[in-house]
């Protein structure tokens, strides 16, 4: 035989002797060890055969157990990467010498060893590893740039048994996703975060990153990073170590074999903590980017060990895994019964919607300043229509101001299904100030009605800048002394209800009882205000009856 093979086999059996047989022929070296629990002598024999075997004189190997170790990809990584497409299904998309492939394998091995593959979810946002779902044989979610911690939080809280991993680069985590990272760590979310720090934006061509070293030349720092201009490198482990919630924080390296072995230990530790449900873990991995940094294997190793590790010391910052207990969060109850209780829905006596094709849709716009009761007036009207068996929608729009900002809402009341809650053209406009009156008057329909607070003063519709769009329309303008009506009953804040009362009197849109039931529903949490608002509603209707001939 001309072959030159080395085969190692471990055999364990119940034999009565320990025998080593060596045959050296045709350059074949086959070593076989047989172990027993006896203290018999060891003998060496040589023969002229091409195969060496260990056996006793009686050839008793019936109960022998052979243990074979197969070196292969972890089960948590796909054997073939079919999601890449038809070509190159055996190799990753990463550059030669990149650290991502090494870290992928370490994570996959740890998943196998901890037997968590069926519970694992890998989140890979925008970056070189965005195609992580090509390789990881587990649950996978791709997210927007920097949003992995937010998505991971949602998954972890919705699926309490899930083991959630976030795999992010320095441009993603330490830049656009910095706030999400800090907030998730501060909450102690059940996440294992793998932060790949290679000091550059790898995917986009080697631009300066938050972790770029002082003086390091990149595409966007041609003279080297200047701290006076772009600040100092971001130290994420040190930053997160100031927070109380994280369980495990460590910085590791992929510089050489020894460093990789230590990285494997940290990776497995972080995933074990997730398996135990104890909380947030952060692993920063110093990784090579030979393509963008224009380094060979030796240069990449030297750069990590002599420059990166000087700026970013490799160390374990925190390990509270023994002290921390499993994180137990209460589960949310989204059952129909629970939601009905929150929103006071009575399913035993539901309000039946009546389909009435003859009742044409009425589009109402209510507008004013924030704090004037614009939205609550719309809600009262919508609830009243609902109680009356109509189809109804309520659509609010308001600025960020708590008081004084613009605010409006659209209410559509219909005898049939409502296609859209948006009111572009309104049949009724209720304006609580001049700004709202001038803004929305041009959107009134022909034969429309405008009810406005009389404190606005004189309003000449033909003086509007865009009067041309409504000059041929027949519009009813009714100034309502709403504040005076409300004040007369000692309830000035209910002036918005006074205007709703005038609307109740003008048109046969909704019954009076439905209006009153609407007030009871809206103010159910403030029972003292119910009768006060009903009184103001009736007073507004009374004022309108007394002045119908003046305006209609």
TrEMBL record:
Chain intervals with Low complexity compositional bias: 1-59
GO molecular function: 3-methyl-2-oxobutanoate dehydrogenase (ferredoxin) activity; thiamine pyrophosphate binding
Domain Thiamine pyrophosphate enzyme TPP-binding span(s) in chain numbering: 134-285
EC code(s) of this entry: 1.2.7.7
InterPro entries assigned to the protein according to its UniProt record, in alphabetical order: 2-oxoacid:Fd_oxidoreductase (IPR051457), Pyrv/ketoisovalerate_OxRed_cat (IPR019752), Pyrv_flavodox_OxRed_cen (IPR002869), THDP-binding (IPR029061), TPP_enzyme_TPP-bd (IPR011766)
Record's keyword terms, sorted: Oxidoreductase
An annotated GO BP: organic acid metabolic process
Any Pfam family hit: TPP_enzyme_C
Positions of the UniProt region annotated as Disordered: 1-62
Annotated ranges, domain Pyruvate/ketoisovalerate oxidoreductase catalytic: 370-541
Record has Transport as a keyword: no
The name this protein goes by in its record: 2-oxoisovalerate:ferredoxin oxidoreductase, subunit alpha
